[in-house]
Write a structure and sequence with these properties.
The complex is a heterodimer of chains A (154) and B (151). Chain A contains 4 helices and 5 strands. Chain A is an alpha+beta fold and 154 residues long. In chain A, a hairpin with a 2-residue loop joins strand 4 and strand 5. Chain B has a 5-stranded antiparallel sheet with strand order 1-5-4-3-2. In chain B, helix 2 packs across helix 6. The radius of gyration of chain B is 18 Å and the shape is globular. Chain B starts with a helix and ends with a helix. Classes of the chains: A alpha+beta (154), B alpha+beta (151).
Chain lengths: 154, 151
C-alpha cells in the first residue's frame, strides 16, 4: 500500500512538473524575432517592401520613425512600416479578441554599420497568448511575411 | 482520501500551468468605451508615458467592408527609454512602441496589456529586463486604474 502511494505520488508530481514546464519551454522554443539582412540601402528596401505588400495581400498603412510622436531627436536609421491584411485581421479578431498586440502588422528597418536589416516579430508567437483557433491564421501570416521580406530583399 | 488530495494537487498544477500561459493582462472596465479610452490615456500619462497614436482598427476594417465592435490600439512610449533601446538593443525595437488594446465584446469593455513576457524572453540582459519589468508594472497599474468607475 505504501509503495502504491509512493508510485502514484511520483507520477502525479512528474506529470505536474511536466505541465508546468511545458508552457515556458514551448514559448522559449518559438523563435520570436526574425531578422533578414537586405542587400539594399534603407530607401530602396522601403520601396521594395511597399511594392511587395500588394503581392502578399497586404495594404500599406504608414511609415514612421520609431519615436514618431514622442518628440526628441529621431534616428533616421530606424524606420517602421505598418501594413495590414484586413480580411485576416478581421478573421483573427473574430476568433481571438486578445490578438490586438500583434495588429497591425509591422516590420522595423534598422541601418547599422551601413547594412539594413529587416526585423519583425514572428506571428507564430501569438500562439503563446491566444486560443488554438488562431494557429492556422498565424501560420498564414507567417508565410506571407516571410514571402514579403524575401521578395523585398531579392 | 489520498487519491482526493493527489487529484487536488494535480488540478492545482494544471491551474498554475494555465495561468502561466495567460501572458497578457486583460481587465474588464467599469466605464463605457469612450470613457475607458480617455482613462487609459490619462493613466498612462500619469505614469510618464506619451500616447503617440491611436489605431482605430474598427474604423479601418469598416472602410474595408468588415464590421466589428469598437477595437482600438493605443500606442505610447517614453522618449528616454526608446533612446536606450535604440542605442543598446536595436533588434528589440520590434517590441516598440508599447501598446494597450481597448475593445468591446458583447457589451463589455476590455483593456488588454501587451504580452511583456514575450519581450522578456528575447534577451537575458538585466538592464533591459528591468526596463521591461517597469513597463509591465506601470501598464498593469494604469489599466487597472482605468477600469475603475469614473468619479
Amino acid at each position: 500500500m505504501n509503495h502504491r502511494w509512493i508510485y502514484s505520488s511520483a507520477i502525479f508530481v512528474f506529470a505536474g512538473f511536466t505541465l508546468l514546464g511545458a508552457g515556458p519551454m514551448a514559448m522559449a522554443k518559438t523563435p520570436l524575432l526574425i531578422s533578414v539582412e537586405s542587400p539594399y540601402g534603407m530607401q530602396k528596401t522601403i520601396v521594395n517592401i511597399k511594392q511587395s505588400l500588394v503581392n502578399n495581400n497586404f495594404r500599406f498603412l504608414r511609415e514612421q520613425s520609431l519615436k514618431d510622436g514622442l518628440g526628441g531627436s529621431e534616428d533616421p536609421n530606424f524606420r517602421v512600416l505598418y501594413f495590414c491584411n484586413f480580411a485576416v485581421a478581421h478573421e483573427a479578431i473574430q476568433r481571438e479578441k486578445r490578438i490586438g498586440f500583434m495588429l497591425p502588422c509591422k516590420v522595423t528597418l534598422i541601418k547599422k554599420d551601413g547594412k539594413v536589416t529587416i526585423h519583425y516579430l514572428d506571428p507564430s508567437a501569438a500562439k503563446n497568448v491566444s486560443n488554438r483557433h488562431l494557429n492556422s491564421l498565424c501560420d498564414r501570416i507567417t508565410v506571407s511575411l516571410k514571402n514579403l521580406v524575401e521578395e523585398a530583399t531579392l | 482520501m489520498k487519491w482526493c488530495s493527489m487529484s487536488a494537487l494535480y488540478i492545482l498544477m494544471v491551474t498554475l500551468f494555465l495561468s502561466a500561459c495567460n501572458l497578457t493582462q486583460v481587465v474588464v472596465s467599469k466605464n463605457d468605451f469612450p470613457d475607458t479610452m480617455m482613462r487609459v490615456q490619462q493613466e498612462l500619462n500619469k505614469k510618464g508615458y506619451q500616447v503617440t497614436r491611436i489605431q482605430a482598427l474598427d474604423q479601418g476594417l469598416a472602410k474595408a467592408g468588415y464590421d466589428i465592435e469598437n477595437y482600438r490600439i493605443i500606442f505610447f512610449g517614453n522618449s528616454l527609454d526608446f533612446d536606450i533601446v535604440q542605442q543598446r538593443y536595436p533588434e528589440l525595437t520590434v517590441f516598440l512602441p508599447l501598446s494597450v488594446t481597448v475593445y468591446e465584446n458583447d457589451g463589455r469593455v476590455y483593456i488588454q496589456s501587451m504580452p511583456f513576457s514575450m519581450a522578456q524572453k528575447a534577451t537575458q540582459d538585466h538592464e533591459y529586463l528591468a526596463m521591461v519589468a517597469r513597463w509591465k508594472n506601470d501598464v498593469d497599474q494604469a489599466i487597472q486604474l482605468a477600469a475603475v468607475p469614473s468619479p
